[in-house]
Amino acid sequence: MTTDQLDSTRSWIVVASAFLSMFTVFGVAYSFGEFFGPMADEFGTDRSETAFFFSITTFAYFVIGMGTGRIADRIGPRPVVLAGSVAMFAGLMLTAEVGSLELGYATYGLGVGIGVACCYVPTVAAVGGWFERRRTLAIGLAVAGIGVGTLVVVPVIELVIDAHGWRNAYRGLAIAAGILLLVAAIGAHRPPGGSEQPMPIRQAVRGRPDFWLLYASTVFLSAALFTPFVFMADYIDTTGGSGSAAVLLGLIGMASVAGRLGFGAVAVRFGLLRLYRGAFLVLSLSFVLWIVADTSYPILIAFALTLGVAYGGFISLSPAIIADRFGTVGMGGVLGALYTAAGVGGLLGPPTLGAIIDRAGHTTAQWTALSSGLVSVAFLMAIRTPQSH
Predict the structure, then answer these.
(1) Which CATH code fits 3-381?
(2) C-alpha–C-alpha distance, residues 206 and 204, integer Å
(3) Number of other CB atoms surrounding residue 152 within 10 Å
(4) Cβ distance 233 to 158 under 8 Å?
């Protein structure tokens, strides 16, 4: 790798491209909570069945991300992002026409799933490969796009659905997402030294218990993390609370931006692993606020802000942890492998919690999410000496 290209002007262009990619794809993915009620009403489905719509998508983009990350390692991120643009556009357009929830599982799950997979891991890994001195900060800025996308897109989608219905909202999202991802692909440059062949993923993680502890912790945290994105609107409707669920999700996005930038800025001083554990613990304990909130909107705001900051730390530090412990050559593949854990958690968590809500109510589901988060912290505490590359 030619070190004079690292931390350069082109490096920051790659950061901007990654930011725009994640703004777009996660703005789409995390707006699903606004579609939850209208779709469940039209198709006559219960919470668990409708939540599975989101879960399939989450599982798809994290699992497929292992493959797209490795492809980007070999051919560069730009063609992968272009493929994501096509998949996202087609998936959303087709979802606007479905006549059943089961068909939507395929159109939305695969379309949005492939779109996110093509744009998330490849662009984050590219940012990691373009930086050395400012890597953690650069990754934090790039993944801040997830939070800004949630902050901006979710409230807009709420308004569009109210005015024009959920099908037209999907059509509008398809056009906007397709255009934005085409723009993002322009700046998705391949990292210098990208021609160096990475070792196979299996070989990279073989004999590395730290990877599997990271993996297990991510499964349990993700099972809890996605709960408010799917069920917050349903929670407010069920409890008769005042205030907007879209605003709360937007606050999670806003707070996550602060978390991504804040954790990235102080990681060198306090240590990656220590901050990573702290983010997991705070995210888990934030569910206590949701449990005691009942219909209190100010406490729900406090929950959204607390979870958002910790969520931002989790997202910004995960790629930095992988780069630090496994190196940047082949980072896309290893990072994608770790993110399959988030896919497993996302696949199992929302439908399970939806079934719990149907049978025992929201409070029991919130306690379950809290317990799952604390299990994730226990796995992280078992990780010992970091290995710096």
Answers:
(1) 1.20.1250.20
(2) 6
(3) 15
(4) no
